[in-house]
Write a structure and sequence with these properties.
The chain is of the alpha/beta class. Helix content is 24%, strand content 27%. β4, α4 and β5 form a beta-alpha-beta unit.
């Protein structure tokens, strides 16, 4: 198990190999389809982003409302491929890791290598369990998107597996 502290450096990402098991501690941001689109539109317009991308980790999740006494509801990953049109641009601006489930396209995989980043996978269908690793959550951008608003999460021991590494390795190819 490799422990990672956010924000991540390029060296952090480049040392990881497909199949490595990691735990993340620190700040992670949430963003799904519409938030990704808005981030890219802001970049295209030369606007300042509402979150720092340099070394950032984005979790593809739209959490459910928190139950009493909890900071967040169920927080399981969504399908990563839906973010493929936006990920290369965000990676070029410093995004260091993404967390989701499922396959990524060739353009994203190439961008991971070019920019020294990784894609992490975590357990789909285990959102209630994963939410126990989130100790703080607050909406920081695009509140009008509801559950898809960008949130700043504080994570402790958040489990993931390196699905695609910066050297072109894929955990999915190792399974076939």
């Amino acid at each position: 198990m490799i422990r990672l502290q956010t924000p991540l450096t390029e060296a952090d990402a480049r040392r990881l190999k497909a199949g490595d098991e990691v735990v993340l501690d620190g700040t992670i941001y949430t963003a799904r389809d519409m938030a990704h689109k808005r981030l890219c539109e802001a970049l295209d317009a030369g606007q300042e982003l509402p979150i720092p991308l340099d070394g950032a980790v984005i979790y593809f999740v739209g959490p459910t409302p928190a139950r009493p006494g909890r900071v967040i509801g169920s927080a399981g990953p969504t399908t990563s491929g839906r973010m493929d049109p936006f990920s290369p641009k965000l990676l070029a601006h410093g995004l260091r890791a993404m967390i989701g489930k499922g396959y990524r396209g060739d353009e994203v995989r190439n961008a991971l290598g070019e920019h020294g980043a990784v894609h992490l996978a975590t357990l789909g269908g285990a959102g209630a369990l994963l939410s126990r690793h989130i100790v703080a959550a607050e909406v920081v951008a695009y509140e009008d998107l509801g559950t898809e608003a960008i949130r700043k999460l504080e994570m402790v021991d958040f489990p993931a597996v390196v699905a695609y590494d910066a050297a072109g390795g894929s955990v999915y190819e190792r399974m076939t």
